[in-house]
Amino acid sequence: MLVERVTVDARRRIASSAADAWPFNVPAVRALAEGGLALTAPVTFLVGENGSGKSTVVEAIAEGFGLDARGGRAGRKYVNDRPKTPLGEAIRLDYTLAGSRMQTGPRSKKRGFFLRAETAFGLLGFVSGMHGYWEDDVTEMSHGEGFLTVLESMFTQPGLFLMDEPEAALSFSSCLRLVGLMHQLGEIGAQVICATHSPLLAATPGAQIIQLDQDGMQTAKWADLELVDHWRRYLSDPSAYLRHVIGTP
Ligand SMILES: Nc1ncnc2c1ncn2[C@@H]1O[C@H](COP(=O)(O)OP(=O)(O)OP(=O)(O)O)[C@@H](O)[C@H]1O
Ligand SMILES: [Mg+2]
Questions:
Q1: Ligand 2 centre and the CA of 248: distance in Å?
Q2: Which of the listed residues 94, 95, 233, 236 has the most CB atoms within 10 Å of its CB?
Q3: What residues does 59 pair with on adjacent strands?
């Protein structure tokens, strides 16, 4: 693991954004600012409803580590050229020994990647074949194939890997491959922080799950997640849900 705690610098917070303005008006961000977030496992999932703050938090962690909030890898110059998000300005990461070694070492030794579904494809095509990325031209692949190429070629070394709803591009079996990959990353000393709506991904063995909601953020068990419960019930009887949205045929 590289990062063991995420906190928000109170002085920076005031400088960057008022308490009642975005992002500090999002309950999960407020909770993060007030109590911090301890990362207790090599793989952490952030789950919660649309708008609960998952992307805001993942993006800020990316920026705290020195990754572009729009997605990309660490150790490249261009990541510092853009203004950070308000939470990214204020966020602080507490590193493990391995993490602080990586932060204080040369930029080329800094390993990390932020893959977000919305911006991934443009970035992937742009950097295909560039040194330090991957050989294959992902613009000639399907969305999911391109995604897996990136995941499997970049996610091979200890580093901080951030993902925002990677399931958007992936089939069931590709999601399973991703679970295998994330688990393996945890075993080799890397760290994964992933926002997801996927009960399949969230079931990665040994992962820490943080649920974001109106009350803030709390640790949750996979089997108790609302998301898991909804999918379980939907798959066993879709009509129980569908009658509320389209009425009874
Ligand atoms: N740049 C922004 N300026 C103002 N408000 C924003 C901005 N980006 C996000 N928000 C708001 O912050 C809240 C949290 O958004 P965020 O994108 O982090 O949610 P999320 O949990 O990732 O949702 P989803 O599951 O839909 O991806 C939402 O209410 C959103 O409208
Ligand atoms: Mg999001």
A1: 32
A2: 95
A3: none
Cα pseudo-dihedral 153, 68, 74, 210, rounded to 10? -70
Residues listed for the chain: 249
CA 221, 223, 229 angle in degrees (round to 5)? 125
Pocket of ligand 1 (CB under 6 A): 22, 26, 48, 50-56, 195
Contact 132, 156 (CB under 8 A): no
> What are the extents of the domains in the chain?
3-246
Helix residue spans in the chain (DSSP H): 10-16, 27-35, 54-65, 86-90, 97-104, 117-127, 143-154, 172-187, 199-202, 226-236, 238-246
Domain 3-246, architecture per CATH: 3-Layer(aba) Sandwich (3.40)
Cα distance between residue 205 and residue 167, in whole Å: 17
Distance CA 53, CA 140 (A): 33
Query: Rounded to whole angstroms, how far apart are CA atoms 17 and 89?
Result: 10
| pLDDT per position as a tens digit, 90-131 | 999 999 999 999 888 777 777 888 887 655 555 555 555 555
d(Cα 168, Cα 37) in Å, to the nearest integer?
Answer: 26
Residue of 30, 45, 50, 198 with the most ligand 1 atoms within 8 Å of its CB, for mutation? 50
Between 131 and 67, residue with greater pLDDT: 67
How many whole angstroms from 57 Cα to the centroid of ligand 1? 10
Whole-number Å distance between alpha carbons of 131 and 238: 48
